[in-house]
Amino acid sequence: MILPRLLSTSRVFSLYHQGWNGSNSARFGRLPEPPVPSCTNLTPHQKRYASTLVLVEHKNSIIAASSLNAIGAAAKVGGPVSALVAGSNADAVAKQLAGVVGLDKVLVVNSAAYDHGLPEVFAPLIKASVENGSFSHVLAAASPFGKNIIPRAAALLDVSPVSDVIEVKSEDTFVRPIYAGNAIATVKSEDKVKLLTVRSTSFAPAVLTGGAATAEAGATAATESGTEWVSEEVVKSDRPELGGAKVVVAGGRALKSGENFEILYNLADKLGGAVGASRAAVDAGFVGNDLQIGQTGKIIAPQLYIAVGISGAIQHLAGMKDSKVIVSINKDPEAPIFQVSDYGLVADLFKAVPELAEKLNK
Amino acid sequence: MKILVPVKRVVDYAVKIRVANGKVDTASVKHSMNPFDEIAVEQAIRLKEAKKATEILAVSIGSTKAQETLRTALAMGADKALHIDTGDSETLPLQVAKLLKAIVDKEKPDLVILGKQAIDDDANQTGQMLAGLLGWPQATFASKVELAADNKKVNVVREIDGGLETVSCAIPAIITADLRLNEPRYATLPNIMKAKKKPLEKLTPKDLGVDYVGKLTTLLVEEPPKRAGGVKVESVDELISKLKEKGLI
Question: Where is the Electron transfer flavoprotein alpha/beta-subunit N-terminal domain (chain B) (predicted)?
């Protein structure tokens, strides 16, 4: 860890007394925290010290799994990590967040204005939170929620955000895929505040219990918005969520119809997995767009990915090529999907998939 | 109602890009309009065809070659085009958003329709940033756009995690198009010819009074790690035994 150069002497001293370096801590006991310097009187040295805010997405008092990955990514930045939770049930979510390992603080904003993730209200809240808490980094998962809000907040702060980060090299250097994952760029940000969205599959999730974060009231910001939330249609499913599933079975155009996806659901259920689809299958109306895997759909990295009747276009590979083991079933032996598959089976999917499901029973 | 549609010239989506000397080789590969921008242009044209919009201005920021992309937009049905020449240097979404804000201030459109992301930098930022800079409402990842009868509001269905969401934005507003919004039309030959006569204005960032320099630099571009070659199995039984060996099932 980088230390004395970035901290004032008194701060180092007090950290030492808190047992920060692990020696003799019991003898000294715990000294009170030094006052947090406000944004206006920071010395350049203090300004460089990382302090990260993670924007937490939640629904029905459940924390989005991807937000836990974002907290995991925040730990890689170094420095204390705070979480920001806003909404009418923020208190209930904050209670759970208090137990998350790696979190120091939970900033709670109780207001129904934040219930539907509207960027018009979240962006000013992030700006106010950054200025109030002098955060050097703001992270959110690269979910539709995070992607919608973070760039707007960055514009308000006049900084360039970094999207879909897959690795944190240092406080200011990040790695992200470009060109549908066919190239990997390392970028350096010299902006005063770094706003990042992080790819969930690239960071281990933070553990939900065992931590001891303190909750406090977050910053306030104007909540008027030119956008009104009207309604939503969310597909209900008992199967594991596509983004977090260990096994994913995905179908393409070759399935021929939505009804035929039943054989994939059957196989997925045997494996305790989720079902996904290629763009072709979504465009053809076989399944809903929320199942699309690829550059413009979901990016997944399960333990086992089974591609059924998917040719393997660049845009699809962008969403699944970090899967641990890829299996493909396709009757065209020349299909590009075989080039990235660990195990390929050249066969008619309508025979092979039911057979596979059947034999998994035994 | 006037609609502004920003379009970007990118490496064609079907091209398998090559990484050489720490950057992506874009010199001799086919370029075309970013696919999401085609959808944005199409949406603007449909609003005009439905007599909701009166004028469509397409704008592109980049080298002089971006003018080809603007001609494509004009051939599809845009009325006028504007090229902001930034030379060969790559522009960051924040730079683009600031230039677009200057254009919005000048041209006063009621709607700006962008693609949700460019398939080269995959940033997915420009629309949101422009909305932030202007203080306008934003409706990202749109799969359906409907203008209210009085043209004061736009109702947008958005693609979100797990399904769809409907929001209503006060106009002026920013919309970013998702794949499902529509199927873009092809430019017909007569329309391509006509497009050559449509007005194409050229400006520089200086003309717009924007001299922002980004603080984000690309240090390195590498090839992604290659996957080790796999094997083809002969039967479902062999597949099952391989997966069992790996402890996957």
Answer: 21-212
